[in-house]
Design a protein that fits this description.
The chain is of the alpha+beta class. It folds into two domains: about 290 residues, 3-Layer(aba) Sandwich (Aminopeptidase), CATH 3.40.630; about 140 residues, Aminopeptidase i, Domain 2 (Roll). The strands form five sheets. An eight-stranded mixed sheet has the order 1-2-13-3-14-20-16-18, sandwiched between helices. A seven-stranded antiparallel sheet has the order 7-6-10-4-5-9-8, covered by helices on one side. Strand 11 and strand 12 form a beta hairpin. Helix 1 crosses helix 11 and helix 6 packs across helix 11. The chain binds zinc ion.
Length: about 450
């Protein structure tokens, strides 16, 4: 029953193709470090591939508030028979600036943050960080910021304590308590403003922000500024078989999905690619998969096709649909193998991973795909020659996790989790295998053509 390394099944020619594919993947990761940047990249890519916001077309897409994208491809069959849906998310764990972030202390200008999603706080100190996001000025105009990515940009950093002084303050504490959330404070500047009496360093950095971006301290109130790792996506390993980058959960799926929805001839069933936001915080909010955006989009698309549609029609169509919840999974960690039950875990390099269920503590809080549907996906992937494996997240009662699968399952459709295994998942620098990235895209293409 144990699957083998996917690389074993690949020729030299295949490996060249996989590496070429992953050059595109790395450049996507470098240009899409936030949900907004991902949505823009995806929207631009769709537009270049014949998708438009005109609802009467064969290829339609719409962007929800700059953070979420849905793309539709009309198939040969009646949409009432159901759609082929794949959903991936484009948000990733990060540090958001607070709405009143700037202060000065011990001759330093500093920024306060509030972390977003599941992070291990100790991983965010003493690494180069970049600042990305938008600020809505008092007059309603928007300014975009992306600082820390190009080689001559400054970067930012959260200080850590030197080992000489950390014994009581950190070393004797639990790992999860050694760095507290309120201590994730970003170093932002240190030259005082000449002639200023009070808070001269804070005044100086605010002056730079005013000159460069035209923003004031109060404008942070209406800003979404995200601190993300300043690392670039790189090959990992002497054989270059892996990719190291921030945000591969879940942009690994988003990239393959974007390629899959664009490529190939007209599908049999109509296809839907959902690039959603806010998965990392439980899919709450108006850019999450739980907002009504999906139904409104479908209503408009079906009306554009000349189909007389109403809420009941859309509900029946979603009930008859089949879906993949494309999200990453934790691969067996070479040095902490005990947290996995290896007979049912996924491994780096063994292909795209399907998970019948997620959740924790007795499958709680998750969608559990029906055996019939698992069988269907299994046959589909085998017929298409996809390299795939199965895996659940960790040993029973070890922890666990969830995806958006349960929110789409609530519409009654068949859905199963399917994505690439990662090492160092949810860290500032996640590791994937190039063969898994490639096979995930192939799996999505084959699913859309089914
Ligand atoms: Zn995820």
């Amino acid at each position: 029953m144990q699957k083998q390394s996917g690389w074993k099944q690949k020729s030299k020619e295949d490996i060249r193709e996989i590496f070429r594919f992953c050059e595109g993947y790395k450049s996507f990761l470098d240009r899409a470090k936030t949900e907004r940047e991902s949505a823009r990249y995806i929207g631009d890519y769709l537009a270049k591939n014949g998708f438009s916001e005109d609802h009467s077309g064969e290829r339609v897409f719409r962007v929800n508030r700059g953070k979420e994208v849905i793309a539709f491809r009309r198939g040969e069959k009646d949409p009432a028979d159901g759609l082929r849906i794949i959903v991936a998310h484009v948000d990733a764990p990060r540090l958001d600036l607070k709405q009143n972030p700037v202060y000065e202390d011990v001759d330093l200008a500093l920024l306060r943050t509030h972390y977003y999603g599941g992070i291990k706080k100790y991983q965010w100190v003493a690494i180069p960080l970049a600042l990305h996001g938008v600020v809505i000025r008092a007059d309603g105009t928007t300014v975009e910021i992306a600082l820390g990515e190009s080689d001559d940009d400054p970067v930012f950093l959260i200080d850590d304590l030197l080992p000489h002084l950390s014994r009581k303050a950190q070393d004797e504490k639990k790992l999860s308590e050694a760095i507290e959330g309120e201590k994730l404070i970003v170093l932002f500047g240190s030259i005082p403003l000449a002639g200023a009496e009070k808070d001269a360093i804070k005044e100086a950095v605010l002056g730079i922000l005013k000159d460069r971006y035209g923003i004031t301290e109060e404008d942070f109130i209406s800003a979404e500024l995200e601190i993300v790792p300043a690392f670039k996506a790189r090959d990992v390993g002497i054989d270059r078989s892996m990719v190291g980058a921030y945000g591969q959960d879940d942009r690994a799926s988003a990239f393959g999905l974007l390629k899959a929805i664009c490529e190939g001839a007209a599908p049999r069933q109509s296809c839907l690619a959902i690039f959603t936001d806010k998965e990392e915080v439980g899919s709450e909010g108006n850019t999450s998969v739980r907002s009504n955006f999906l139904q409104i989009f479908l209503y408009d698309v079906l009306s554009g096709m000349g189909i007389k549609t109403d809420e009941a029609f859309i509900r029946r169509m979603l009930y008859s649909s089949k879906a993949l919840s494309a999200d990453v999974n934790g691969a067996v960690n070479p040095t902490f193998q005990d947290v996995h039950e290896k007979q049912n875990a996924c491994f780096l390099g063994r292909g795209v991973c399907i998970s019948k269920f997620t959740g924790h503590l007795g499958k709680s809080g998750a969608s559990d795909a029906n055996a019939e549907y698992v069988g269907e996906i299994r046959r589909l992937f085998d017929r298409g020659g996809v390299i795939w494996q199965t895996g659940e997240m960790g040993r029973v009662d070890e922890g666990g996790g969830g995806t958006v699968a349960k929110f789409l399952a609530a519409y009654g459709m068949d859905i199963i989790d399917c994505g690439v295994p990662l090492l160092t998942m949810h860290s500032p620098y996640e590791i994937s295998s190039k063969v898994d990235i490639y096979e995930a895209c192939r799996a999505f293409q084959i699913f859309f053509r089914s």
